[in-house]
Amino acid sequence: MNDHRQSAKSTENTATQPPGAVMSNENTRYAVICRGVRHSFGGAVAVDGIDLDVAEGEIFGLLGPNGAGKTTTIRLITTLLPAGPGMVEVFGRDVSSHRMAVRRTIGYLPQQLSADGALTGRENVELFARLFDVPRAERRERVRDVLDAVGLADASERRAQTYSGGMIRRLELAQALISAPRLLILDEPTIGLDPVARDGVWERIQDVREATGMTVLVTTHYMDEADQYCNRIALMHRGRIRALGTPEELKEGLEPGATLEEVFRTYTGDQLDEPGDNFRDARRTRRTASRLG
Ligand SMILES: Nc1ncnc2c1ncn2[C@@H]1O[C@H](COP(=O)(O)OP(=O)(O)OP(=O)(O)O)[C@@H](O)[C@H]1O
Ligand SMILES: [Mg+2]
Fold first, then answer.
1. In a domain, 293, yes or no
2. Domain boundaries, position 254
3. pLDDT of residue 269
4. Number of independent structural domains in the chain
5. CATH number at residue 52
6. pLDDT, tens digit (0-9, with 9 covering 90-100), for 10-20
7. 66 lines ligand 1 (CB under 6 A)
8. Ligand 1 atom at shortest distance from the alpha carbon of 111
């Protein structure tokens, strides 16, 4: 496995980059580099040898139909799944040999609910502050700051179970931001939200990114927001990257005037022949989208 390990620096050589890779120069630095990454659950291949570069500071969208392998890829990057074949580096550190150091650089908003309905918004974020070792003396102020940044200052003393879906997702965003991550990973941050609430989540993400320069890796099924907010997009299908580029490159590459949805359908059109996944995926999506009980 060490043989095809490359440092962040070595990818400055364009010969090592996959097609559609970010236009790099000697100053380009990478938040994430994946080479030949694979993962199977039992005999089922979920991630089938992907190459991916996420440049520092960009908003990178990982798109694809249900079951494409997006969450599995993310869990490999976050070290929540053990490293397997291939290489994953986060800010130049190999995830298999620097697990804890990598985790400290990442804020993660999982696809499933991560907030506790019985706790107030503030208590939820405080819990994450303790989990991420935010120094005790700074905790109170940091919790207040991130709740403020996601627009929940006024609701912070209410139990999360009284929040709307959009407020819950913003609370979870606050949880992911409490460690002041260099890399924010968001797995369907706007699932099930109305258009105004979706904009609200994205505005918060953009504000924090502008203020801190953090990198954002995001999945979404909403093509309009991917088109609007992502600097680059990878289209994933059946465990592989099928297309990679800026939204404009992908659309122009299909045909002049094409929409991102048309690009998506073109590269992932044979998605309906995966029996077995549908029930689990639907149940998971609904659980995530539903309000806290
Ligand atoms: N814990 C698991 N055990 C067994 N199979 C799994 C597990 N997690 C994912 N899979 C399978 O791996 C494949 C990829 O799943 P993954 O969750 O990565 O897809 P996804 O692109 O995130 O889909 P979605 O858009 O529905 O969230 C699917 O076939 C899925 O059924
Ligand atoms: Mg997923």
1. no
2. 2-285
3. 79
4. 1
5. 3.40.50.300
6. 333 334 444 45
7. yes
8. 27
